[in-house]
Amino acid sequence: MTNHRIQAHFQESAELKIKSAALLAHPIEQAVELMFTALSNGNKILACGNGGSAADCQHFAAELVGRFERERLPLPALALTTDTSILTAVGNDYSFQDVFAKQVQAFGQAGDILLALSTSGNSSNVLAAVEAALERDMRVVALTGKGGGTIGKRLTDADVHICVPHDRTARIQEVHLLTIHCLCDGIDVALFGEEAE
C-alpha cells in the first residue's frame, strides 16, 4: 500500500464526514430525542446488524451500559448480535433471517427502540427485525447508506432514518461509528446537561 493510497482513505473519510454533518445532524438529533424519551420512560434500546455493523451494535450497547465520557448509572441497551446459542439455534432451526426478529419478539416491548444497522439498507435479517419491532409498537432508528434500501422504505414517520450519503461500505461504517458517538453524547447531555468547559 502506498502512502498516497493511505492518504486518499483519510481524505475521502474526512470529506464524507464534513458532508454528512450538514445532512445528518437533524436526524441524529431526532434519534437522540427518541432514545432519551424511551430511556426516561423506563424502556430500553435493542441493536442489530451484521459484520462490522454487529460490532457497532456491541460498541453502542457497551457505551450505554458502561459509560461514554462521563460517570452515570448504566442505561439499558442490548446488542442482539452477541448470544451465539440464540443466533445458532434460531439460524439452524428457523433461518438466519430470523436471528434478530426472534429476539425482538422475545425482548422488545412497546416504547422500546430498535437501533437497526445496515450499510446497504437491504439486510434481510435486519429488515425482519424492523418489521417485528413495528409490530410491537417500538420505534426504529435505522443507520444505513447507499440510499437506504428496503429498510429505509419500510420506516414510518415516527421512526428516524440516518442514511449516510455514500456507496462505499467502509466509509458508511466510519460515519456510523461517529453517529453512534453522537447518539451516546446526546443521550448523556439530555440526561445531565452540558458539561462545563
From TrEMBL:
Protein name: Phosphoheptose isomerase
Location (main, coarse): cytoplasm
Known function: Catalyzes the isomerization of sedoheptulose 7-phosphate in D-glycero-D-manno-heptose 7-phosphate.
Organism: Noviherbaspirillum denitrificans
Cellular localisation: Cytoplasm
Cofactor needs: Zn(2+)
Subunit structure: Homotetramer.
Recorded name of the encoding gene: gmhA
SIS domain sequence ranges: 35-197
InterPro entries membership: GmhA/DiaA (IPR035461), Phosphoheptose_Isoase (IPR004515), SIS_dom (IPR001347), SIS_dom_sf (IPR046348), SIS_GmhA/DiaA_subfam (IPR050099)
The EC number(s) this enzyme carries: 5.3.1.28
Catalytic activity: 2 D-sedoheptulose 7-phosphate = D-glycero-alpha-D-manno-heptose 7-phosphate + D-glycero-beta-D-manno-heptose 7-phosphate
Gene Ontology CC: one annotated term: cytoplasm
EC top class named in words: isomerase
